[in-house]
Amino acid sequence: MYKRTILVTCPKACAEYLAEELKSLGYEPTSLVSNGVFISGTYEDCIRLNLTLRTGLRVLWEVDNFTARDGEDLYHQAVRMPWEEWIPAEDAYISIVSSVRNETVVNTNFPNLRLKDAIVDRMREVTGDRPNSGNERDRGVIFLYWHEEEVCIYLDTSGIPISNRAYRAMPGAAPMRENLAASVIAATRWDKASPFLNPMCGSGTLAIEAALLASGVPGQQLRHEFAFQHFKPFDNARYQEIRAEVRKRVPDSLPFPIIASDIDRQAIRAAETNAKKAGVAHLIDFRVCDFREAPIPEESGTIVLNPEYGERLGEQRQLEATYKAIGDLFKQKCPGYWGYIFTGNKTLGKRVGLKTKRKIEFYNGPIECRLLEYELYGGTRNPKYQ
Ligand SMILES: C[S@@+](CC[C@H](N)C(=O)[O-])C[C@H]1O[C@@H](n2cnc3c(N)ncnc32)[C@H](O)[C@@H]1O
User: Fold this and answer.
1) pLDDT, tens digit, for every residue of 161-217?
2) Can you tell me the distance from the alpha carbon of 152 to that of 154, in angstroms, rounded to the nearest whole number?
3) Which residues form the domain of 81?
């Protein structure tokens, strides 16, 4: 099967973690943009990536690129594309998603409509049948990139973003997206062989992602619905083989603890339910407790907290004391650990009162965030952490 350009998208500022993950899977990134990484690969590669990736958002397979001045130009070029190679003649359904920055476009829906018209007209002429269309993202999704005059058209082989791992039965109050949590873990120095502590775990995303990562379980092992199943190059027998190849059994135990705690009993209930669905509940020690009382094994390890930061939950004043108390916890109870705080509030970050080793840029949706890293001296330093 032939190779084409693949663009794997990710949250803003996460491309370097995605590029590393792609390299670990044997793909060579050709270029990086803030919210994505380009590689080259076949349709089967897209299937494999959809099943395995943790830090990605969507896997887009490029089917054409050209320049277009305006909507008519877009239509005339798109209607000449061999859509019948990718879209089934019978019972097909397509939806169009786009990123458009072209001065001739006033109505943002217009380019999507022109592209949809081109696809429908081409399909009707060649096959005698026309695909249905709408806004559902769980079937054939086409992604249109049109910036200035540059057009790239992709089959979106994910549809529903692959940040949706299908384990989140209970979302909790302010959950972190699964792929953001995976990128945050990738940004830490956790070696997947020592304690991983997640006080203030909320719905448990960081702890669950840590358990899945340590177990080597592919990101989307639980998920069974992807847009790639709705395009013509899809071969179900081959898909089942790839699923079987990448599948990993969750181990019975891990040689180090993963501890997730929260003061809110409901949050722990949600985290446990989600972990059970993900198949890793037995690998995580869940506790209902204040973060100051969270158990901290006497080895070196990694402790990651995602406190409220006043955007969606909690109030700034109260939070100042909380952030200071996290600093005290780090200083007094976590010698030998690497400490991390994920926050969207720089002022609160300063209340921690410890010197940061790194301030790593992230975005939680539109909110600019930082992962603050602290090297917590004292105790015996595990050589793996130097
Ligand atoms: C922003 S949420 C964490 C979201 C989490 N990363 C997730 O993916 O669901 C912050 C959590 O801190 C918890 N929390 C607030 N104050 C706490 C305290 N004093 N001790 C322990 N947990 C606390 C809240 O109950 C809430 O679940």
Assistant:
1) 999 999 998 776 778 999 999 999 999 999 999 999 999 999 999 999 999 999 999
2) 7
3) 4-156
